[in-house]
Specification:
globular, four-stranded mixed β-sheet, 9 helices, alpha+beta, Glutaredoxin, 4 strands
């Protein structure tokens, strides 16, 4: 596992570099990932707009800022993502804002399809759902916790919709985006911090 993590870290992006790479592909009419299609490029374009907005508007809660300020151990947050992923577009800006706030956290991003062996270690119900956040001990580079691909409320919304309608269609995706908009990133902040605080107690 550590070898997989080390290899992924060597090929990882900073948040800024990840954003720039996705943007460069969009300009070429492409998306990240092994599969290329007009639909995936279109989703990447939509996500670009979302992330630009979120980068300007995401606000950390006072409780989360207080918890981040009290961290004693150093962490690497390694996120498996793709530019076409709507959930990643909603969640990566939040993770980045949290990492920016704390000098104890370094955020790195890797592409799922380029890191399949690592992705296979962190499946969700057998699927390669993203984004997937791996919380690493910065010293040992071992994964001490993982989170994703969605906060609990968003997961329930999709599960309930699929139970009722049998599919996750465009209406479900629209409802999901509305959920993210109304939540303002608070659920994601709280869920990730719960994991980090628990990990901190184990490390210190």
């Amino acid at each position: 596992m550590q070898e997989l993590i080390q290899a992924s870290l060597q090929n990882s992006y900073s948040y800024t570099a990840y954003r720039e790479f996705v943007t460069s592909l969009i300009k070429e009419g492409k998306s990240t990932g092994n599969e290329q299609s007009e639909a995936l490029t279109h989703y990447s374009e939509l996500n670009e707009v979302r992330m630009n907005r979120l980068d300007k508007t995401i606000v950390l809660t006072e409780a989360v800022k207080d918890q981040l300020s009290q961290l004693q151990s150093n962490y690497i947050w390694l996120v498996l993502s793709e530019g076409w992923c709507g959930d990643a577009a909603q969640l990566l800006p939040i993770m980045n804002r949290m990492a920016e706030f704390s000098e104890k956290i370094e955020l790195r991003v890797v592409l799922r399809d380029e890191n399949e062996l690592l992705m296979n270690q962190f499946l969700t119900n057998g699927g390669k759902s993203i984004p997937k956040l791996l919380i690493l001990d910065a010293v040992t580079k071992t994964a001490i916790a993982d989170w994703g691909p969605r906060p609990a409320g968003a997961t329930k919304l999709i599960q309930d919709y699929k139970s009722t309608h049998g599919v996750v269609d465009e209406t479900a995706k629209t409802n999901l985006q509305k959920w993210y908009l109304q939540d303002k990133g608070i659920s994601t902040q709280n869920e990730i911090m719960t994991l980090v605080v628990k990990s901190e107690k184990a490390l210190v």
